[in-house]
Amino acid sequence: MAATGGLVSKAVLDAINRPTADAISLPNAFYTRDEVLALERERLFFGGWTFVAVGAAVAHPGDVLPVTVAGLPALLARTRDGRLLAFHNVCSHRGTRLVSEPQRKKRVIVCPYHSWTYSLEGELRKTPEFNGPGTDEPAHFSKAAMGLKPIRCETWHDLVFLNASGDAPPLARTFAALDQRWSCYDLAELRYEGSATFDVDANWKLAIENFLESYHLPSAHPGLNSYSRMSDHYCMVEPDFLGQGSTQYNSASAGPGRLPAFPKLPKSRARMAEYPTFLPNLMLGIHPDHFFAFGVEPLGPERTRETFHFYFVGDGAMGEDLSEARRTTLERWKGINAEDISVVEGMQIGRHSPAYGVAARFSPYHEPTTHEFQRRVANALAG
Fold first, then answer.
1. Which among 129, 156, 183 is the end of a domain?
2. 236 pairs with which residues across the strands?
3. In sequence order, what are the beta bridge partners of 78?
4. What pLDDT is attached to residue 4?
5. Terminus of the chain with fewer CB atoms < 10 Å: N or C?
6. Is the CB of residue 254 less than 8 Å from the CB of residue 332?
7. Are the C-beta atoms of residues 292 and 309 closer than 8 Å to each other?
8. Are the C-beta atoms of 206 and 216 separated by less than 8 Å?
9. 97 vs 112: CA distance, rounded Å
10. What integer pLDDT is reported at residue 383 of this predicted model?
């Protein structure tokens, strides 16, 4: 009996589901074929909560931001009363994309094609001269039925998620276990600093698989490994997230070392860092004095866009006196990600070789997270 829409046999799926030491990895086709990405869009990106933006990008009433969910065009709008809403980014008239660039402090959303005009709540307000010169009101349909089509939108702290199918459990349930685990971090103290974007010639899953393990630190990140050693890392395999952490993240060695830390952090976490991943596309990093959110979006089977969003702790971290410390932290992580891009793109090249992808294996010590990610993807696609 075929599994995952005929992409792999039941025998291969069973082998992927073995314990880590005995399991095989996803076949090469999962990283190169259009039909796999189409199934991932349907069952992973549209069916669950997909990270799309940070609230800081739509901070003020009237701000409008175009986003995509694995290619699905959407927009975020901050209403005049401060609510954050999401809609399909298409005009109800001829399907034109409404918003192509971020807009600031707008009162309405105007289609660039025929100037159909919508409120920030998605209501259709104007259909200029639809029945001829000087006759704006449509005669054969109700404007109330032609508003923008909403998309379910929820936030976790400053991170914005969309659920295109509309039937995922509440977002708070997804993050409940992490909220409890991180209860000593007052995430309300986080202050947004900036973002960075990277385009990668590789499948989106490879970026996540690389983030999930520390096995590559000595080879790919000798600088990072000097203050967050591979030998000090541990794995997290939880029902709602996967990841790794470091028991000896020495921020004084990692940069300026002057940034304020979370005020209620116990001594047991004074040198800890954790990096949980939430399917399908969000990776997080928490440290004593900063936090990041790292999202990936598939642009094609072998192209991915990464977005890095950085936060520091408290208003005191955001002063001019610490601008160099913040800049150094951002540049350090951007440099680490550039090192990752090199190896991730190398893995993508390897996915075109028949010498790989037949019963490839995992380290049971370093890679249970990578294996579990692949297992969850394969089972989701198999339904």
1. 156
2. 243
3. 84
4. 59
5. N
6. yes
7. yes
8. no
9. 8
10. 83
Report if residue 163 sits inside a domain. Answer: no
Residue 68's nearest CA partner among 91, 47, 46, 84 is 46
Q: What is the DSSP letter of 219?
A: H
Please indicate, yes or no, if residue 241 is contained in any of the structural domains.
yes
Chain centroid, CA 86 distance in Å: 17
Round to whole Å and give the CA distance between 289 and 46: 34
Same domain, yes or no: 200 and 123:
no
Note the pLDDT of residue 5.
59
Please check whether residue 290 lies inside any domain of the structure.
yes
- The DSSP bridge pattern shows strands 233-237 and 242-246 to be antiparallel
Helix (H) or strand (E) segment spanning residue 61: none
Contact indicator for 193, 311 with CB cutoff of 8 Å = yes
Q: Residue 337's closest CA among 305, 374, 371? A: 305
The domain tally of the chain equals 2
DSSP H helical ranges for the chain: 10-16, 34-40, 171-181, 204-211, 217-220, 222-227, 251-254, 323-350, 368-382
Does one domain contain both 190 and 294?
yes
Candidates 77, 32, 318, 59; CA nearest to 201 is: 32
The conformation of residue 70, written as its DSSP 8-state character, comes to T
pLDDT of residue 2: 47
Residue for token digits 């639809």? 130
Query: Has this prediction a pTM greater than 0.90?
Result: yes
Tell me the two tokens of residue 197: 């974007």
User: Do 283 and 244 form a contact (C-beta atoms < 8 A)?
Assistant: no
To the nearest 10 degrees (0 to 180), the angle between helices 204-211 and 368-382 is 150
For CA atoms 35, 241, 244, 270, the dihedral sign is positive
**How confident is the model at residue 1, as a pLDDT?**
32
Q: What letter does residue 314 receive in the DSSP assignment?
A: S
N-to-C CA span, the chain:
13
Which residues of the chain are under the pLDDT cut of 70? 1-5, 256-257, 357-358
In this structure, the dihedral spanned by the alpha carbons of residues 317, 335, 233 and 326, taken in order and rounded to 10 degrees, is 0
- Residue 163 CA to residue 86 CA, distance in Å, equals 10
